[in-house]
Amino acid sequence: MNIGAPLKIFHESKGTIVTIEVKTGETYRGRMVETEDNMNCQLRDVTITAKDGSQSRTEYIFIRGNQVRFVVLPEMFKNSPCLKSSELKKHVQAKKPKKNNKKPALVQSSK
Predict the structure, then answer these.
(1) 56: which strand partners?
(2) Residue 101 maps to a domain
(3) For residues 58 and 48, is the Cβ–Cβ distance under 8 A?
(4) Tell me, what CATH number does 65's domain have?
(5) Which domain holds residue 44?
(6) Is 103 contained in some domain?
(7) How many secondary structure helices (H) and strands (E) does the chain include?
(8) How many domains does the structure of the chain reveal?
(9) 72 in a structural domain
C-alpha cells in the first residue's frame, strides 16, 4: 500500500513539536515520539488544553488516530520534498496533451 504526501509528512514530524486537536475539542501540544499509518501517535512533554481553556501537563500521551481532528506541524514542512514531488506530478499531468481519438486520415502516395 502506498501512503500519500500528508502521511509522509506526518511521519517526518517525529522529533518536532506538534499540536493535535481531537474530536472532543481538547488540544495536545508536545514532542512527537512515534507515528503510525493510521495516525496513532505518541507525544512527550505534553500540554493539554481542555475545551474550557484549562491547561494541564503530562509526560507522555498516546492519541488514537481515529480521534484526530487535525494536526498543526512546524512551518518547515511547507518546503517538504514530499509536497514538491506530488505538486510536480500534478503539474506534469496537467501539461500532458490530450490524446486525440480520431483516426488518422489515409495518405496516398503519388507516383
Answers:
(1) 48
(2) no
(3) yes
(4) 2.30.30.100
(5) 5-92
(6) no
(7) 2, 5
(8) 1
(9) yes
In a domain, 111, yes or no: no
Dihedral (C-alpha) 72, 77, 78, 80: value to the nearest 10 degrees? Answer: -150
pLDDT 10s digits, 36-55? 999 999 999 999 999 999 99
Q: What cell numbers appear for 61 in the block?
A: 500521551
59, three cell numbers: 509526560
CB of 41 closer than 8 Å to CB of 35: yes
pTM over 0.85: no
Output the CA–CA distances (angstroms, integers) from residue 37 to 10, 58, 81, 91, in the order listed. 9, 25, 19, 27
3-state secondary structure of 62: strand
Examine the pLDDT at 15 and tell me if it is beyond 60. Answer: yes
Could you report the per-residue pLDDT of 59-92, keeping only the tens digit for each? Answer: 999 999 999 999 998 887 776 766 665 555 665 5
Report d(CA 21, CA 17) in Å as an integer.
Answer: 14
